UniProtKB/TrEMBL annotation, chain A:
<dbReference type="InterPro" id="IPR050931">
    <property type="entry name" value="Mito_Protein_Transport_Metaxin"/>
</dbReference>
<protein>
    <submittedName>
        <fullName>Mitochondrial outer membrane protein</fullName>
    </submittedName>
</protein>
<dbReference type="Pfam" id="PF17172">
    <property type="entry name" value="GST_N_4"/>
</dbReference>
<dbReference type="InterPro" id="IPR033468">
    <property type="entry name" value="Metaxin_GST"/>
</dbReference>
<dbReference type="InterPro" id="IPR012336">
    <property type="entry name" value="Thioredoxin-like_fold"/>
</dbReference>
<dbReference type="GO" id="GO:0007005">
    <property type="term" value="P:mitochondrion organization"/>
</dbReference>
<dbReference type="Pfam" id="PF10806">
    <property type="entry name" value="SAM35"/>
</dbReference>
<dbReference type="InterPro" id="IPR021211">
    <property type="entry name" value="SAM35"/>
</dbReference>
<dbReference type="Pfam" id="PF17171">
    <property type="entry name" value="GST_C_6"/>
</dbReference>
Automatic annotation (TrEMBL), chain B:
<dbReference type="InterPro" id="IPR033468">
    <property type="entry name" value="Metaxin_GST"/>
</dbReference>
<keyword id="KW-0653">Protein transport</keyword>
<dbReference type="InterPro" id="IPR019564">
    <property type="entry name" value="Sam37/metaxin_N"/>
</dbReference>
<keyword id="KW-1000">Mitochondrion outer membrane</keyword>
<feature type="domain" description="Metaxin glutathione S-transferase">
    <location>
        <begin position="217"/>
        <end position="280"/>
    </location>
</feature>
<dbReference type="Pfam" id="PF17171">
    <property type="entry name" value="GST_C_6"/>
</dbReference>
<dbReference type="GO" id="GO:0015031">
    <property type="term" value="P:protein transport"/>
</dbReference>
<keyword id="KW-0813">Transport</keyword>
<dbReference type="Pfam" id="PF10568">
    <property type="entry name" value="Tom37"/>
</dbReference>
Length: 297, 429
C-alpha cells in the first residue's frame, strides 16, 4: 500500500483517485465474489403454517399448559395459574375449548390467555389479568373481591406463601423436579438432551430468582412452615362451608385454592415425597373441597 | 443469657430503616423484660451466618427473620414469651393471613415509596443509609438494596416513578429520533421531568395505579382495625405478632419525612384509624430515636432512648477485607463467571441426591461453561494483541507517509488517507 501511495501525489485528479482507492479497499475481492454469486444453490418452497387439530375450533379458546389427551377431555391443566382460570370459567358456566400451548405462544409471554368466539374474526387475545372482567361481561357473575374484605387478604396467602413453597417443591427439589416437572414442562419441548438440560436449568433458575426476590437465601424449613400456616388459615376460613365465603356456587377464590390443592393432591403427577401433600392432608375440609370441585371436570 | 437483636440502624427517627427489623424490635420490647435483651444496630447482614437482618443471637445460636424469631422465642421461653397464645379459630387464621398480606403488599408499597421514587431515594433513603453504614459497606449495600427493591416492584409497572428509568427511556427515544434523521439534534425538546409533574399531569395512569394499590392495602386494614385498640384484640387482649408486624410496615409508611410523601398522604386519607393507631404505638414502643442513640459510645446518650441499645462492634479488618474481596470479585466480568461455576460445581458435588445421568449432564454443562470462560478470556487477549499489533504496524507506516506528504504536496496533508485516520484515532485512545 505504501509504494502505491507514494505515487499518488503525481497523479492529476487526486481527489477522485483517493476516493476510488477507499472504495477498492472495502469492495469484495473478485474470487470471493464469484463464489458467493453461485448462492443460493437451491430454493425450497416455503413451509405451510403449522396445522393442528385445534386450529379450526371456533368457540372460546383457552390456551393452557396441558397435553393433547388432557385438552381433548378438558382435564385440569398441570399449571396452577392456568388451572385457576380454567376452573373459574368452568365454575361460572362459560363454554370453552382447552388448547395445549406454551409460554412462547402467548402475546404477553404468560399463559393462560383466551381468544373469544365473539365477535368473529376478532383475534385479540385476553390475558389472564383481564379474564375475570371478560367473564363478568359474559355471564354477569359477581366480582367477588368486592363482597368480602378477606378476599384479597387470604388471596395473598396463595399468591405468596403457597406459591413460593410450590415453586420450591416443583422446581428446586431435585427429586420432585426429575419426577414431576421435567416430564411435564421440559420433555415435551425437545428430544435433544442438551436442549432439555438447558431448559431445565432455565426453569430452575427462574424459580430460584423468584423466591430470592423476597429473601436473601432459600430456607426450605421456613417455606414449608409458611405453607403449613397458610393451609391452616385457609382451612379455618373455609370451616364447614361448601365453598369459601359461604357462597352457593364456587367462584374465583375457590378456583385459586383448587388450582393448588388439586395439583398437590393429584397422585397421577407422580410426586415422590410430596411434603406439601402431607401438610395439606392434615386439613380434611380442604381435601373434601378439592374433591367436590373435581366433579366439574 | 442476654439476647442480642441485630438490626439495620435507625433512620427517619425510627429505630430501624427496615420494616422486618422494626417488627422484631416491637415484638421483643413487648414480650421480653427490659434487661433480657439488647439491641445492636450492626447494619451489616454478614454478622449473622444467614446473611439476613433482623437476626437474634443467643450465645452461638443465630435466628433470622421476624417469623423465625417469634417461633424461637416461644420455644426458648417454653411458651411464656408469646403474644399469640390467646388467639382462637378465625383470629389465628386472620393473624396468619394479614401477616402474609402485609409482607407482600406493604413491602412493595414501601419499596415504591422509599426506593423506586427517585426523589425520595436520593434525598432521604440513601443519605440515611450513609449515616448508619460503615466503610466500605456504605458504597456497596445501598445500590444493592436499591436494585433489589426495583426488581421486586417491576411487575407493578410503575417504573415511571423512577427518574433513572425514564431518563434511559428518553435517551433511547431521543437517539431513535436522531437516527431517523428527521429532526435536527438540537431541536428535539428535552422536558425536565420531576416525580410531581409525572404524578401531577403527565401520568394520570400512574396515579390511578398508586391509588388502587394503596386502597388495596389500607382498606382491609382499616376495616379489621375499626375502633378497636389492636388489630385482633380489644384493649384487654393485648397486642399480637400481627400488631408488631403492622407497626413495622406502617410506621415506615407514615413517619419518614420524604420529598414526595404520596404514601403517607394516601394512608392519612384512606385509613384515619390505622394512622392514629400507628402514631400511638410508635410513641409507646419506639419513642423518638436518633442515630446517636444507637451508635454513640456515650452511655448517657444511649439511655435517653427507651430501647436497650448496645454499641455495635467496629468492623474487623478480616470482615472488611472479605467484603471488599467478594464485591471486587463479583464485579469483574470473567472472574465472576469462574466463581459462579465453581459454586455450581460445589453444589453438584455436595448434593448427593442428584441421580447419575443428571449429575453427569450437570457437570458436563459446568465444564462447557468453564471452557466458554477460557474461550472468552482467549478472545479478549487475542483481540487486544491484534489491536496493539495493528497500531504498531500502522503508526510506523503512517509516519513515513505523513512526512512524505508534508514535503511533496499540501493537498495530501489536508486529505489524509482513511487508514491513517483510523490509526490516529485509536492511538489517541
Amino acid at each position: 500500500m505504501t509504494p502505491e501511495r507514494r505515487d499518488s501525489p503525481g497523479q492529476t485528479p487526486d481527489n477522485v483517485s483517493t476516493a476510488s482507492r477507499a472504495r477498492d479497499f472495502f469492495s469484495v475481492p473478485a474470487p470471493v465474489k464469484r463464489i458467493f454469486d453461485r448462492f443460493p444453490l437451491v430454493t425450497y418452497p416455503s413451509n405451510d403454517l403449522p396445522h393442528s387439530a385445534w386450529s379450526d375450533r371456533r368457540g372460546n379458546r383457552l390456551y393452557v399448559f396441558t397435553d393433547a389427551a388432557g385438552a381433548r377431555h378438558g382435564r385440569p391443566s398441570f399449571n396452577p395459574q392456568c388451572l385457576k382460570w380454567q376452573a373459574y370459567l368452568r365454575f361460572v358456566g362459560i363454554d370453552f375449548d382447552v388448547i395445549p400451548s406454551n409460554n412462547h405462544a402467548s402475546p404477553s409471554g404468560a399463559l393462560p390467555f383466551l381468544i373469544p368466539a365473539h365477535p368473529v374474526n376478532n383475534n385479540t387475545p385476553i390475558p389472564s389479568s383481564k379474564l375475570q372482567k371478560w367473564a363478568i361481561e359474559q355471564v354477569h357473575c359477581e366480582e367477588e373481591q368486592q363482597l368480602d374484605l378477606r378476599f384479597e387478604v387470604y388471596a395473598s396467602l396463595l399468591d405468596h406463601r403457597i406459591r413460593n413453597a410450590w415453586l420450591y417443591t416443583l422446581y428446586l427439589d431435585p427429586e420432585e423436579f426429575a419426577a414431576v416437572a421435567k416430564p411435564l414442562y421440559v420433555d415435551p419441548s425437545s428430544n435433544n438432551s442438551a436442549v432439555r438440560t438447558a431448559l431445565a436449568m432455565q426453569l430452575q433458575q427462574a424459580a430460584r430468582t423468584e423466591i430470592l426476590k423476597t429473601s436473601s437465601y432459600i430456607d426450605v424449613g421456613a417455606l414449608e412452615a409458611e405453607a403449613s400456616d397458610a393451609f391452616e388459615a385457609l382451612s379455618t376460613l373455609l370451616g364447614d362451608n361448601l365453598h369459601f365465603f359461604n357462597r352457593p356456587n364456587p367462584g374465583l377464590f375457590d378456583a385459586s385454592v383448587f388450582a393448588y390443592t388439586h395439583l398437590i393432591l393429584d397422585e397421577k403427577l407422580g410426586w415422590r415425597r410430596n411434603r406439601l401433600g402431607q401438610l395439606l392432608r392434615q386439613h380434611e375440609n380442604l381435601v373434601q373441597h378439592r374433591e367436590r370441585l373435581l366433579k366439574f371436570f | 443469657m442476654v439476647l442480642e437483636l441485630h438490626v439495620w440502624g435507625p433512620a427517619f427517627s425510627l429505630p430501624s430503616i427496615d420494616a422486618q427489623c422494626l417488627a422484631a424490635i416491637a415484638y421483643l420490647s413487648l414480650t421480653l423484660p427490659q434487661d433480657a435483651w439488647v439491641l445492636v444496630a450492626s447494619s451489616d447482614p454478614s454478622v449473622s451466618p444467614t446473611c439476613e437482618l433482623p437476626a437474634l443471637k443467643n450465645d452461638s445460636t443465630w435466628v433470622s427473620r421476624f417469623r423465625n424469631i417469634v417461633d424461637y422465642l416461644r420455644q426458648y421461653s417454653n411458651g411464656e414469651w408469646d403474644l399469640d397464645q390467646n388467639l382462637t379459630g378465625l383470629e389465628k387464621a386472620d393473624n396468619i393471613a394479614f401477616s402474609a398480606f402485609l409482607e407482600s403488599r406493604a413491602q412493595s408499597l414501601l419499596d415504591l415509596s422509599l426506593y423506586v421514587t427517585s426523589q425520595n431515594y436520593y434525598n432521604s433513603t440513601s443519605p440515611s443509609y450513609g449515616a448508619i453504614l460503615q466503610w466500605p459497606n456504605q458504597w456497596i449495600l445501598p445500590p444493592k438494596i436499591h436494585t433489589a427493591a426495583k426488581d421486586r416492584t417491576e411487575h407493578l409497572g410503575l417504573s415511571s416513578l423512577d427518574l433513572d428509568a425514564i431518563e434511559e427511556q428518553r435517551k433511547r427515544e431521543h437517539s431513535a429520533a436522531v437516527a431517523a434523521g428527521h429532526v435536527p439534534k438540537n431541536l428535539i425538546p428535552r422536558p425536565r421531568d420531576t416525580v410531581s409533574s409525572l404524578l401531577g399531569k403527565t401520568s394520570q395512569q400512574n396515579q390511578f395505579k398508586l391509588e388502587a394499590l394503596t386502597a388495596e392495602l389500607f382498606e382491609p386494614l382499616e376495616e379489621i382495625l375499626g375502633d378497636k385498640k389492636y388489630f385482633l384484640h380489644m384493649s384487654e387482649g393485648g397486642p399480637t405478632s400481627l400488631d408488631c408486624l403492622a407497626l413495622g410496615y406502617l410506621s415506615l409508611a407514615l413517619v419518614p419525612e420524604l420529598p414526595h410523601p404520596w404514601l403517607r398522604d394516601a394512608m392519612r386519607n384512606k385509613a384515619p384509624f390505622v394512622t392514629a393507631y400507628t402514631e400511638r404505638q410508635r410513641q409507646k414502643i419506639f419513642g423518638i430515636v436518633n442515630v446517636e442513640h444507637a451508635l454513640s459510645p456515650n452511655s448517657a446518650k444511649r439511655s435517653s432512648s427507651i430501647l436497650p441499645w448496645q454499641v455495635p462492634q467496629r468492623a474487623r479488618l478480616a470482615t472488611v477485607s472479605s467484603t471488599l474481596y467478594n464485591t471486587l470479585a463479583d464485579a469483574i466480568p470473567v472472574w465472576k463467571d469462574i466463581r459462579m461455576h465453581r459454586r455450581i460445581k460445589d453444589e453438584i458435588e455436595e448434593n448427593s441426591e442428584i441421580a447419575g445421568i443428571e449429575r453427569r449432564m450437570l457437570s458436563i454443562v459446568a465444564d462447557t461453561w468453564t471452557k466458554d470462560v477460557w474461550l472468552s478470556v482467549g478472545t479478549v487477549v487475542g483481540g487486544i494483541a491484534a489491536l496493539a499489533g495493528y497500531l504498531v504496524w500502522n503508526s510506523s507506516g503512517g509516519e513515513v507517509e505523513y512526512e512524505d506528504g508534508d514535503e511533496d504536496d499540501e493537498l495530501q496533508f489536508t486529505l489524509p488517507d482513511q487508514p491513517m485516520q483510523v490509526g490516529d484515532m485509536l492511538a489517541g485512545l
